[in-house]
């Protein structure tokens, strides 16, 4: 019964992707993904979205690009109520887990009706806790863990855990973590 339910979920996801393609969304995705039909995936202008293999996007998540590129690697999980909005480039590598309510913006408003954009790169095997905000120009290194509620405005080295209190704190992961 579980196999039938999983197969049905994948089929519904594939139909939702096909519908998005028919309505002009510039998305390229493999057919073995679980992208909720209640997730908003949109492209405008020359924007492109590329999705790897075995990606799960939960309901009420928005993935939007305006003239930018979004690339989501394989085996990624994006939980409910997230926003990924690109004007330049957002790359999420393989095996990334993103907690609910996370916001990823590669741009700021310039105060004159325009935008200031800088790419975001999230490396392999990163875990991002709930309600985290990731701002423009940030690179998060491989195997990093971002604690819930963090605001990431600077690069994060590989193999660290980010815990924010008054200032950003980094600590290396233990070998057994």
Q: Can you characterise this structure?
A:
The chain has one domain (2-172): UDP N-Acetylglucosamine Acyltransferase, domain 1, CATH 2.160.10. The chain has one helix at 2-22, and strands at residues 27-29, 34-35, 40-44, 48-51, 56-57, 62-66, 69-72, 77-78, 83-86, 89-92, 97-98, 103-105, 107-109, 115-117, 120-122, 127-128, 133-134, 139-140, 145-146, 151-152, 160-164, 168-172. The longest helix is centred in the N-terminal third of the chain and has 21 residues, at 2-22. The strands form four sheets. The chain has an eight-stranded mixed β-sheet. It has a six-stranded parallel β-sheet with strand order 1-4-7-10-15-18. Strands 3-6-9-12-17-20 form a six-stranded parallel β-sheet, with no helix packed on it. With 177 residues, it is mainly beta. The mean pLDDT is 85.
